[in-house]
Amino acid sequence: MTVGVSETQRGRRKTPLGTASHERLRLWLRLLRASRGIESELRERLRVTFDITLPQFDVLAALERRDDGISMTELSRYLMVSNGNVTGIVDRLVEDGLVERLAMPGDRRTTRVKLTNRGARDFAIMASVHESWVDELLGLYNRTEVAELIGRLDGLVDQLRGKSAAVAAPIKRRQRK
Q1: What's the CA gap between 142 and 130, in Å, rounded?
Q2: Which of 103-107, 139-143, 166-170, 173-177 has the highest mean pLDDT?
Q3: 7 Cβ contact partners less than 8 Å away, ≥ 6 residues apart
């Protein structure tokens, strides 16, 4: 174990290297790096192979789960992005013939979107290829390791959801003299 102190910005508490706290910080950074690396690789492969962005793929995936379509508001909530972001993405997908907008009878303010037949066919191909890419990128883990990692990460997510309601006490800044 390395004995020393992690580098920090001036004025911050220094965390001793090798402590459980420091190792958890390193774990979080590795998870972030791995997630961003996988996402970056998938973005590039989707762009090059299908001329589609990851957000467009995410919209198609959400619509694929709903044969009857989904309202724009529901879609933005599901994807956790603003209505404005969803509108721009859907506009492009409509232009490409993958998605259609449907007026809601009796409610002119609400628009539903759903996959076109072509969109469903194209997305089925994209989803299959996407799955093979993810399989390739995570192929160093066997089924047992995957199940263990999923279990541990699900436990972490459950713990974080439980804590999200609690508000952390604000950190007091040192007063300047």
Answers
A1: 19
A2: 139-143
A3: none
Per DSSP, the residues of 69-107 read -EEHHHHHHHHTS-HHHHHHHHHHHHHTTSEEEEEETTE
pLDDT given at position 60: 97
Span 16-37, pLDDT tens digits: 677 899 999 999 999 999 999 9
According to CATH, the topology of domain 23-163 is Arc Repressor Mutant, subunit A (1.10.10)
Structure tokens at 41: 């690789």
What is the rounded distance in angstroms from the CA atom of residue 148 to the CA atom of residue 100?
A: 40
Do residues 63 and 113 make contact, with C-beta atoms less than 8 angstroms apart? Answer: yes
The residue among 81, 101, 82, 103 whose CA lies nearest residue 90 is 101
Helical spans, DSSP H, in the chain: 20-50, 54-64, 72-79, 83-95, 117-137, 143-164
Instruction: Please answer whether residues 63 and 119 qualify as being in contact, where contact means their C-beta atoms are separated by less than 8 angstroms.
Output: yes
